[in-house]
Design goal:
- An eight-stranded mixed sheet has the order 16-15-20-21-23-22-24-19, with helices on one face.
- The chain contains five helices and 24 strands.
- The protein is mainly beta and about 550 residues long.
- It has three domains: about 70 residues, no CATH class; about 160 residues, no CATH class; about 190 residues, no CATH class.
- The chain is extended, with a radius of gyration of 33 Å.
- Keywords: Cilium biogenesis/degradation, Glycoprotein, Signal.
- Part of the tectonic-like complex (also named B9 complex).
- Belongs to the tectonic family.
- It comes from Pomatostomus ruficeps (Chestnut-crowned babbler).
- Pfam families: DUF1619_N, TCTN_DUF1619.
Length: about 550
Amino acid sequence: PADTRDAAQARARRLPAPVTDVARLCMCDLLVAQCDINCCCDPDCGAEDFSLFTSCSVPVVTGDSQLCSQKAAVYSLDVEANPPERIFQLIDQVNPSVFCIRSTNYKQALYLKSPEIPTPENFDRLLDEFGGAAFSAEPDSWNLDTDAPNPPDANETHRYEHGVPVHTEDAFLRLPSPVVSSWCSDANPAGFLVNQATKCIRSVSVEKCDSIQALSMLFYINSSILAVPKSSQLVNISVRSVAVQSLDGTRTLLNSSDVLRLPMVVDELCLNAVLGVNYHITHTDTGEIIEAAAAFVLGAISKEALSIEQSFEISFTQENTQPVPLSGNPGYVVGLPVRAGFRPQGYPSPAGFLSNKHSQLTILQSTSTQDCLAAQGARAPVLFGYNMISGCKLRITAATKCQPLAQTLLDVLKGQSFPEYVASFGNSQAQAVLDWVPITQLHVSEQMISTTLQSSCQIPVSLGIEVKWTKYGSLVNPQARIVNVTATITSTALKQPPSGRERFIPVTSSVVFTDISSPAEPGYKAWPTINIKLPFDFFYPFV
């Protein structure tokens, strides 16, 4: 009928609102809160940046190329202007192909809809709807109402990713840091999973200290954190502890952290001024922030002081895990401890329990007395990239018992709990089994030249640890990765002196780091590798 055809034509003319705003799309925007060179669509770029551009790396930005008609964002540079300016145009682009999509009337196919999770209340309904051999994927109704709100942007981030600034109600979580000089800049955002520690100088005036925001606790906790970016779920920043520092540097931890102490001027002193803030963020394995706390150090400022030094720190911990200090992210950093652990019975992953409270590989620490029996329990951490050697002297008499002495020396060399595994990366997690390298333990016995001096009992006299590592990842920014660790115990036959005399045996412990990276061939330009650790959700939603 004619009225049906007219109604269909009217619906076709009334196209739905576009799901994707091409003016907001930018494929070359790679840096967070920084301007990408020659990226004309980067919202972080200003007029000063555009004046330095030579061309637009992405001149045209479009949405779905299969649509018959769509908006296109066109970017260009006016090089004749002084200085050069960026030109932005939003035009209608027509697809000349006869096989094009005129109306995207099935809106549910334009974005990923989270599936409904079965619960005791909706289980029967979901079973009736999807429990058969086949079910319909068609929507209940075709809604072409253009006044309906647009579906969420498919490109929006619904969780935090590494390096993304931590969002708050008004902007970002501030972590003041020095920028050009040593003076504090409050424009530095804290990045998710990026542990930082900064120090900077703040200009102060005792007369106005109660009005300087950066000296007040409220400046650092008054803005709640978004649990995930672009969400309405808020996480308040609680006060974990408050320590008060006197003018002579003595610190006193307050019994209660619920009291909010604001700066005030008393007898030409500025009291309760913030000298340090330590944030601690707890997150889930899916990138959602669930808890935030801050520890403060408050102090007094004398009238003569024109500036103070403030320190700021932030750390991240995944829920239901023990915080472990990292030695790199991801590769090891020279000078930081080598992380180690062991796999106890009943645990599927290494480091279920750590070898010590700092989860570090350790060796014998030399003491001033050089007495091996007195040095038992003294350990020094093995620092990545540092070849180390330490030792002590063992006094042997005619009354020395060999078997107890052998076990004691073994404890001195290896420690009470010698680890079985070493983390291949500086940020390896305990549950990542493939990120842990087993320690190969070897036992070598020194052969005595004279057969008359041979003994059935031998004692360990040295522990040698060799750590082999390689450069891993991109040639531009290689990461240090441990690939093999060997611990060699060398034993020798015990030779006891005659009665009434004594002799000393040196006992040593050493660590050697060996770079086994393959050197590039002369005249050969190597291609950058992509040997990187993929995110856990890289193939989402596919398995």
